[in-house]
Every structure is written in structure tokens, then in C-alpha cells.
Design a protein that fits this description.
It is globular and about 45 Å long. It has 175 residues and is α+β, with helices and mostly antiparallel strands. It is built from five helices and nine strands, in the order ααβαββββββαββα.
């Protein structure tokens, strides 16, 4: 069973320090990284990175729990949520056009992987929209019990997701 409060508690511990270090090292001219409050956290923004000119970048952190690698087939998998509350057909965060974050930061416990993935959200969303059916048929989905409701996600190998995101960044002009 997924326990959102337990995950939040974990993310406020040593994970918070690691997340802040990763964010700061990936964003040029970042002068500070702040953990958001509970309301912003629930809306999908976990951190606000501030640049030296005052611009802000919003980040949603997705941290897998210890032991996740036992399900992998050779590499880290990234969770792509289709349904946030399946019973109510509430769309998952990965498909929400109005999500306010700029980046998704995927991290894993050290025992599972020392890799992290810092992905532009809208490119990830578009890649999921275009490839989701294929990924669903290839990898299936997992239901996660969250007390009184279920969420549903596809766990896709990171290299597959990154290739799809990269494909959204280039193309050919057709005349």
C-alpha cells in the first residue's frame, strides 16, 4: 500500500538534501532551492529553484522507495502515472496539461541506483501521450493502493523514456 504521508516524511529527510544538491548542480545560476509547503506539494511542485535574476523554476520530485530495483529489467524504471484516482477517473500527473512544474526529478535509493533523471515536464508529457499505448501494451501497468483509492502507473525503462523525450525535441520540416 502506498502511504502518501510516509512518502512525504521520507522526502523531507535526507532525500530533501540530496534533491536540493541535484537541482542546484543542474540549473546554471541557481542561487537557492526551497522545499514547497504542503499545498504546493499536493499540486505537484516540490521545489522552487531561484536564479540569480529572480526567475523561478518549479520541480516535482519523484523518489522511488528502497528495493524498487528488484522489479527492473536491467536499468532504472520511471513511473508514469495514468490515473491519480482510478475510481474517479482522475487523470494522472504525467498527463495533466495544467501541471505547473517545469521539471521532473526522478531519484532512487543508493542501494538501487546512483542515477537520477531531470526531465522537462512538458516534453515528458508529450512523449507519454504519443507512446503511452505502446508502453502500456509492452510494460503493462501497476495499480497502487493508497488507503481508499487506487492510482495506476506504467513503469518504463529510463532509456526508453529518454529516447521518446529526445524524439520530441527534433524533427523535420515538411514542405
Amino acid at each position: 500500500m502506498n502511504d502518501w504521508a510516509e512518502k512525504l516524511s521520507y522526502s523531507l529527510g535526507e532525500q530533501k538534501q540530496l534533491d536540493c544538491e541535484i537541482i542546484k548542480s543542474n540549473i546554471v545560476n541557481c542561487v537557492s532551492v526551497q522545499k514547497t509547503g504542503l499545498e504546493m506539494d499536493k499540486s505537484g511542485v516540490d521545489y522552487i529553484a531561484t536564479l540569480k535574476n529572480g526567475a523561478q523554476i518549479l520541480i516535482d520530485a519523484k523518489t522511488r522507495m528502497k528495493g524498487c530495483s528488484k522489479y527492473w529489467k536491467g536499468e532504472p524504471e520511471l513511473a508514469l502515472e495514468m490515473w491519480s484516482v482510478k475510481e474517479q477517473r482522475k487523470i494522472g500527473w504525467t498527463l495533466k496539461e495544467d501541471t505547473q512544474c517545469d521539471y521532473i526529478l526522478y531519484t532512487f535509493p543508493k542501494e538501487d541506483s546512483d542515477r537520477y533523471y531531470f526531465i522537462p515536464f512538458q516534453l515528458l508529457r508529450i512523449a507519454f501521450l504519443k507512446n503511452g499505448r505502446n508502453w502500456y501494451s509492452t510494460y503493462g501497468s501497476k495499480l497502487q493502493l493508497n488507503h481508499s483509492y487506487h492510482s495506476e502507473a506504467i513503469f518504463v525503462p529510463a532509456s526508453v523514456v529518454l529516447q521518446a523525450v529526445q524524439a520530441e525535441m527534433t524533427g523535420y520540416i515538411h514542405s
